[in-house]
Write a structure and sequence with these properties.
Length: 269
């Protein structure tokens, strides 16, 4: 099994190099709610890897075919009731717009409305945001900060805005991204929380293929991490809402903040 080096660049430290660290996947879903979301929830509850996995859904609260419909609103309630977390993706009826392309006034309105929508559902202040297309800049980060929103990006992307019909390609996609994480793990540059390293994985619950095959994706992640010798936790997926939020905030705070992150593949709409 691999051991990480001392993590010099991280706020969490631990003595020596032999302290066991384990990795846990933090699964996230963008762009919903959607008629496919129910299937995703069932996969998370029942699959061959680990039952009752909890995830973070970065949602669109006012788009007419997402959270702006009565069905969409009901699905957001179901997600909350099943112990998943809700984060903000978009809060405008115009839907999936890049925050960097919106006027300051429109972005402000979107963040205010989106937070209000989610706060009403969860009864708690919404703390997490993921910008559409992962695009952000200094101005949008400043806006998030004013609204006490923490930006959570992705360590691993399923890139399921493109339909990966070929099993081998899905496997190689995860393998290449996990190999990059393995390098960061060995250098000790991944964020740590209670001797656990959260790995943020992004899917889209709007994607029909994902909704049908999420269980296969979850198995692939575990298989490919094992192939690379990464030390997975006995329960490789985070499954406690409080731990999920703490891990997300830990990763959000330690996210690199380059001026702009390119979206390699356009997300599903
Ligand atoms: Zn999106």
């Amino acid at each position: 099994m691999l051991h990480a080096a001392n993590n010099q660049g991280c706020a969490d430290r631990w003595p020596g190099t032999d302290t066991p660290l384990t990795l846990r996947f933090l699964v996230t879903f963008d762009d919903g709610p959607h008629p496919n979301t129910g299937k995703v929830l069932r996969h998370l509850a029942r699959n061959t890897v680990q039952p009752h996995i909890k995830g973070i859904f970065f949602v669109q609260t006012r788009h007419a075919k997402r959270g702006g419909s009565s069905d969409g609103r009901a699905m957001l309630e179901i997600e909350r009731a099943e112990g998943h977390l809700l984060g903000l993706h978009t809060g405008t009826a115009k839907g999936h717009l890049s925050h960097t392309g919106m006027s300051p006034a429109d972005l402000e309105r979107s963040l205010l409305d989106g937070k209000e929508d989610l706060d009403q559902i969860t009864g708690k202040p919404t703390m997490l945001v993921r910008p559409p297309y992962w695009l952000f800049n200094a101005a949008t980060l400043d806006s998030y900060g004013r609204h006490r929103l923490h930006m959570l990006l992705s360590d691993i992307k399923a890139f399921d805005g493109v339909n990966w019909g070929i099993h081998l390609l899905r496997k190689l996609n995860f393998r290449s991204q996990l190999a990059g994480l393995r390098t960061r793990f060995l250098r000790g540059t991944l964020p740590v929380m209670n001797h656990t390293i959260p790995i943020v994985v992004t899917f889209h619950d709007t994607n029909s293929f994902t909704a049908e095959h999420l269980g296969d994706y979850l198995s692939l992640l575990v298989e490919e991490a094992a192939r690379l010798g990464l030390p997975l936790h006995d329960k490789p997926f985070l499954d406690d809402p409080d731990e999920l939020l703490a891990a997300a905030l830990r990763c959000a705070r330690s996210s690199p903040h380059p001026e702009r992150t390119p979206a390699l593949v356009q997300e599903a709409q």
